Amino acid sequence: MREQRRGRRIAMPLAERDLFLRSERTCRVATVGGDGSPHVAPLWFVWDGYALWLNSIVHSQRWVDLMREPRVAVVVDAGDGYGDLRGVEIRGAVAPVAEVPRTARPDEQVAEPERLFGQKYSGGTFVADGRHAWLRLVPEKIVSWDFRKMAGAMPARL
C-alpha cells in the first residue's frame, strides 16, 4: 500500500483512522460508468482493520460498473464546519467475495464482515436478503485528514 505523502501533519494515526472507519456509517463510492462518466453513491460499509467491505445490491449501477472496472475510490467523511472536517479516502480494486447474491448459507469468507455489519447496522444480526453481495476493497492507497489538528484552523462553523 502506498503511504500518504502530503498532509501528514493532519493525517490520522493508524489507531485513530481505524476507530473512525469503524464508527462512521456511510461511505461514498465512486465508480466509472461504461461511457467513462463517474458515478458516486452512498453505501453502508464495515472496516475490519485490513479491508473495507461493501454490501451492494447486485443489480445496481454501482455493481455493474464495478464488475466491468473494479477500480474504485471510497470516501468516508464527517464534520460540519471547516475546522471539524475529517475523513479517509481509500483507493484500490474491489473483488466479489462469497456467493452472488448472498444467501443465508454460512460462509467463513464473509463471517467477520457479516458479524461487524450486524453489530453496526442491525442490532447484532446480519440478514442476507438474496439481493446484496459482498465486495472487498483491500486498499492500494489510503489518505486521511483531520482539520481539527491544524493550529489556528478556521472556526468550527462559518
In short:
The protein is α+β, with helices and mostly antiparallel strands and 158 residues long.
Can you describe what's shown?
It is a single chain. This protein has helices at 14-23, 61-68, 111-121, and strands at 26-32, 38-47, 52-57, 71-78, 86-97, 132-146. It has three helices and six strands, in the order αβββαββαβ. With 158 residues, it is α+β, with helices and mostly antiparallel strands. The chain has one domain: Roll (Pnp Oxidase, Chain A), CATH 2.30.110.10. A hairpin with a 5-residue loop joins strand 1 and strand 2. A six-stranded antiparallel beta barrel has the order 1-2-3-6-5-4. The termini are far apart. The longest helix is centred in the last third of the chain and has 11 residues, at 111-121.
How do the strands and helices of this protein lay out in sequence?
Layout: H1 14-23, E1 26-32, E2 38-47, E3 52-57, H2 61-68, E4 71-78, E5 86-97, H3 111-121, E6 132-146
Antiparallel strand pairs: 1-2, 1-4, 2-3, 3-6, 4-5, 5-6
